[in-house]
Structures are given as C-alpha cells and as structure tokens.
C-alpha cells in the first residue's frame, strides 16, 4: 500500500524557485513517464508554495484523473510540512472538507486511493464514515488505502471496518487491517478478538503474527498454540519482534509454564540467533 511519500529535508524551498504551473507540469510529466520519485519531488516543491492551495483545489476539479490525483496529493500534505509557518496556507479542516467532497462522486481508483491515504495523514474524525463506505470497493489498493486511513481511529465504525477488512481476500489488506486491530488500537471487545482469532491460521504469516500479537496483548489464550508454533520455527514472519513481544505479554497474562519458561530463556540470552 502506498501511504505517501516522505518529503526531502531541503528546508522546504522549491528547487530553482520554479513556479506552480511549472511544478504541476513536471509532476504530470513524471506521472506519464511512470517516474514516481520525480513526481513526488515536484509534490514536495509544490507544497512549499503559498499559493499551492488554490492550484491544488483547481486540480481536484479537473476532468482528468491524473490531475485530480495530483491535487489530492498536494492538498493532503500542505499541513504536514514542518517548515510551513502556522499562519500560512489552509487549515487542516478546510483541506479535509475538499477531500471529503471528492469521495462521494469519485470513480477513479487512483484518485480514491489518494483521497483515502490523504485523509489518513490528516486524522480528521469526519473521514471515518466516508472511508468506511469504501470498504467493499472492488480495487484492493483502494481497500488498502481505507485501512491506512482508519489506522488508530477509536470509533466503533472504524474498528468494525477494520474487522471486516481483516478477512479481505487480498493478503496485503488483511495484514494491514489485522495490524490495525492488533497494534494500533487499545480496544478490546468480543468481535475484535474473534476477528483476530480468525487470522491465527491465515496463510499469510505476517497477518498470522499480528493476530497472535493482538490476542496475546489482550491476554487471550487462543494465541498460545500458534505462538508456540512460531517459537518452534514452524512458521516465520517478517518481523520476529512481533512474536517476541507476544510471548512476553501472553506469558505475563496467563502464567502458562511453557510460555514463562520460554520467556525466561530468551531474557537470559538476549543475543541468541
């Protein structure tokens, strides 16, 4: 899932003081060439311009999807630039309003992905409902962007959407949604635990590891068997620390002697392979 580009640490000044129209043309040319790095460099420079707000809103009204997507990417990052003085540019609320206006009528998957990702960066609770309504979108990347947009949201509607998407047919969407339930939320209720338990035998080992972690940190013994299997090397995830954290949490919560012994063994040998 593309959750957006990290800006260059260049002081926020546009390269060679190019104008907004020049930077828009550069970004669109890069899009046509398939050069994502060049496109994001242009976006970085665009957001340093005080009048980029007006240009980005105009782009969002374009009949061309590539222009609308560019407008969204610029808008969503105007207020995330740490070099922008607090009194300059649009308020976060006004940016969110523009993005929300796009959601209902937009049909292009690329634009919807950009909107959902942008709303995730802006963290406005008004986005929860519109994003949740995109959870059944046929494009897996849109559904993945919905997950990103809802990560860390405490609202029950957001959590219910993540629960549904944790069973998505796309493994990347499942993994991110399970991560959102397991490690980006402190919520603890039966439906959430059951959704995590349903992923304990997921064919994707990363989704499985997230489920183990989420149940373990909630003291749910259903994680014990899969956790022991992982510790025994029967399956491997991309981030072993997830399983190590799960072991510590579940051993402390349940007092299971198998887990406490393994936790003590690992604590005594932190440099093991």
UniProtKB/TrEMBL annotation:
<protein>
    <recommendedName>
        <fullName>HEAT repeat-containing protein</fullName>
    </recommendedName>
</protein>
<dbReference type="InterPro" id="IPR011989">
    <property type="entry name" value="ARM-like"/>
</dbReference>
<dbReference type="Pfam" id="PF13646">
    <property type="entry name" value="HEAT_2"/>
</dbReference>
<dbReference type="InterPro" id="IPR016024">
    <property type="entry name" value="ARM-type_fold"/>
</dbReference>
<dbReference type="GO" id="GO:0016491">
    <property type="term" value="F:oxidoreductase activity"/>
</dbReference>
